[in-house]
Amino acid sequence: MVSCGDSALEAACSIAETGDTRITLSYRSRAFTRAKANNRDRIQTTADAGHLEIAMASQVAAIESEHVELMQGDSALRLRNEAVITSAGGILPNDFLRSIGIEVETKFGIA
């Protein structure tokens, strides 16, 4: 999971709370400053319960079919990957996503 506005925190918690999967949440800053207080509390409670990992001050360096690489300072984290959810706000960073090999398909009004 990448980004961390309210929709990203809500999605990460909803998935992690099922107990069926392991979530790592990557966020570029050191604090969830844009999210509502109840979502910040929920994400911390979910992390404290061991249902997800939070990688603060991290950057996505690469997304591969089976691994995601995050950078935290000088440290590289290589995480096993089955799916990546990007919550990047109202305007997608299409150029960035394409540069790391992600095909972007926009659907309006289609579930």
Description:
With 111 residues, this protein is an alpha+beta fold. It has a single domain, classed as FAD/NAD(P)-binding domain, CATH 3.50.50.60. It has 3 helices and 5 strands; from the N terminus they run αβαββββα. The protein has helices at 6-16, 37-48, 94-99, and strands at 23-26, 52-55, 59-63, 67-72, 75-80. Helix 1 (6-16) packs parallel to helix 2. The longest helix has 12 residues, at 37-48. The radius of gyration is 14 Å and the shape is globular. The model has no long low-confidence stretch (mean pLDDT 85).
CATH class: Alpha Beta
Describe the oligomeric state of these chains in a short phrase.
Answer: single chain
Give the overall shape. Answer: globular
* Helix/strand structural class: alpha+beta
- Beta-strand portion reads 15-25%
Gap from first CA to last CA: 20 Å
Number of strands: 5
What name goes with the CATH superfamily? FAD/NAD(P)-binding domain
Structure, briefly:
By secondary structure, the protein is an alpha+beta fold. It has one domain (6-99): FAD/NAD(P)-binding domain (3-Layer(bba) Sandwich).
What features would you highlight for this structure?
111 residues, alpha+beta, FAD/NAD(P)-binding domain, three-stranded antiparallel β-sheet, 26% helix, globular
Please render the helix and strand layout as text:
Blueprint lengths: L5 H11 L6 E4 L10 H12 L3 E4 L3 E5 L3 E6 L2 E6 L13 H6 L12
Parallel strand pairs: 1-2
Antiparallel strand pairs: 3-4, 4-5
Helix pairs in contact: 1-2
